[in-house]
Amino acid sequence: MTDATLSLPPIAILGAGSMGGAILHGLVASGLAEGGVTATNRSIAKAAELADLEGVTSVALEARPTGNTEAAASADIVLVGVKPAMVPDLLDEIAPHLRPGAVVVSLAAGVTLDTFARHLGTDVAVIRSMPNTPSLVGKGVTGLAAGASASADDVAVVRALFETVGAVVEVPESQIDALSTISGSGPAYVFLLAEQFTASAERMGFDHDQARLLAEQTFIGAAALMAASDDEPAELRRRVTSPKGTTERAVAVLQDADLASTFTTAAEAALARAKELAAGS
User: In the chain, count of helices (H) and strands (E)?
Assistant: First the structure.
């Protein structure tokens, strides 16, 4: 395949919804998608939203029912971004049309590499991905798990693709569901904290706009400081926590609430649900 440090080969995104669309925008902004991108959506309206992106061919299946097979046939990397329940039928549809050596990348939560192999054949290179919603603003983190037929070069080019929207972590498939409970579901945990932080500020007399600004900017600033520092989060926390100060008193309350156990229990609940979804329940 094309050297990922220079450019990316032709790409198809089948189902360029929220996550597929985020990756599409990252590709366009990166300038790496020199081979061009074909993106499909079911409706004409959704396709029209992407039609003006440079280097992108946006296809509405409503107007062109053969759009998925044509897009897959034109690409060296095929991203499958449809809903999990729709994946098997889509794979059956595109399997006869894939280019030799094409890499198929799953964006579908809970759909295993084995499912892809059953519908595409064991000789097709497949990589399972788990991006998260901050990819929409180029600050995502994506987990990648390679199938048995995916080469190191295949993984490298797909890694370069996802690095256009953030960081990438390579893991065995056995860890993809666990990864999803941290980075995949994690933004919701952060939003929940910001939500509660905002509510606390309102109870202290700030109006909603002030409370939201205080909460959001604190999270944004703390995240930026953490990103700019080589120190562990625990060390950064200690620096803010002056002995016998107000922060120390507040942190003690949070620690008494056994946050470590709470977060572990939450992640385990998410993992259990991921396994239920993978089993079709």
Answer: 12, 8
